[in-house]
Amino acid sequence: MAHNFSGSETPNKVRMMVFETDEPHPDTTETKGSFGQIFDRLFKTAGDNHTPPLEIETAMRFVVEPKGGSLPSLDDLTDVHAILITGSMYDAHGDDEWILKLLDLLKELWLHRPDIRFSGVCFGHQLLCRLLGSTVEPTEGSEWELAHTPVKLTEIGQKLFRTSEDILHLHQMHQDHVANAPSPSTTDLLPKNSKVHVWGSTEKTQVQGVYLKDKLFTSQGHLGFDEDMVRRQIDMRVENGGIKDEEHAEISKETAELEHDGEMVAAAILRLFHGEDDDIP
Known about the structure:
This is Glutamine amidotransferase domain-containing protein. It comes from Neodothiora populina. This protein is an alpha/beta fold. It is built from 8 helices and 11 strands. Strand 3 (about 80-85), helix 3 (about 95-110) and strand 4 form a beta-alpha-beta unit.
């Protein structure tokens, strides 16, 4: 059953705001625009392929204050009923002032806007899990998980993605991970009877994404990356000293051309945004 939005919202339209928490490589920005524009195109494709087709209306807000961004006010979000937080080179477990302000805003929305559904990718996934009490920290040995990676689906993951396959593939680009999924024992923001599901895992990252019915759907893996973007993001992290194992980086770049399932994940997130998860526990 479609979510009933207020005002001019229609059953076949989803209105979301993308919180941009970083900027792509300059070459990617020149050809594909900001992360918000990349997500807008991806979700429009998912909307076109939805039955019946769904219209996507995307607002975007660059929120990194040290780089000239700013957080939206609560009034700015009156007509928004879905929020997606992008990836970032910042640490989601960091205490940068803008990150703490963003967490405060998300908490306010979580508590007082029950109509809003949340999604996050990479940094966004980690930040939303942090909001709900998860530990976010570097992976063991601070190893990077890079580029084309098989993700093993749980039973809930198969239902969410409407697939009988037990593996999907996504591009990874992270050194930190969510060490434990959110639960009522980690936060008072979740009712005692709520169940946060982990929908997939990899060899290096047990919590590849979490799902909470009618509320939350996150992904550690990237949805909208193509081959050029993967190569550029890896190069950028090598150049800024984030990735120190250059051999690992070069090997990972060779997988950038492989097909991935970002559109499948975007379609599942869109179904959450549209209120179609009645058949999921």
